[in-house]
Design goal:
The protein has 209 residues and is of the alpha+beta class. The chain has one domain (2-207): Porin (Beta Barrel), CATH 2.40.160. It has helices at residues 2-34, 81-84, 179-187, 194-197, and strands at 45-51, 57-64, 70-79, 88-97, 103-105, 108-123, 146-159, 168-178, 199-207. The protein has an 8-stranded antiparallel barrel with strand order 1-2-3-4-6-7-8-9. Strand 5 (103-105) and strand 6 (108-123) form a beta hairpin. Helix 1 runs antiparallel to helix 3. The radius of gyration is 19 Å and the shape is globular. It starts with a helix and ends with a strand.
Length: 209
Amino acid sequence: MSIKIMRVLKKYFFRLTSLVIIFFLLCKPQILGAQKKSFNLLPDHVKVQYAGGTGFISFGVGYSNKNQKLEADLYYGYLPESIGGVRIHSISTKFIWLPINAVRVRKYVLEPLMTGLVVNYSFGEQYFSFDPPNYPYRYYSFPTAIHSALFLGSRAGINLPTNSFVHRLSIYYEIVSFDREIISLVSNPKSLQIPDIVTLALGVKMNIE
């Protein structure tokens, strides 16, 4: 019974993930370009992140919409062999929504709630997006190369002088849970608890817009 539940949840989880990605891609001209007088390829911000499923350390660039409520980031992540047992390079996309207005006190800014979606792809022959040809169909319940995750977090920053290259420097945290862990919790609620399926990400954001 639990296997059937996992297959159903997996099916709809990945469908929902695909729909969210398509939605952001279709809306990108409106949320990232139309609200700005001139849109160029230079990113609005740069991020450095520790852990959180995007690598032991990851570096990202991204864009924000005009009212700073939506962000879209692209990360390169690296996990050294000395830590993970195998060297892993990965690419991740992150879509962030800030539903609550930022709290501003003089030059300090608190963004109390961030939430969104992460999609991660790991490179390597040991990873696959679809079942390997030498294994039966659906032998594996999940692809090992592609994962998606949901997260919640907060961010605090300080505004720097307007003539500096970095306009705002922020630190943030995210509590992240990946698709496989979420589905495992739903299908095995007696064996797992919330702390078993989440991981913590810490990062620094530099606004350079």
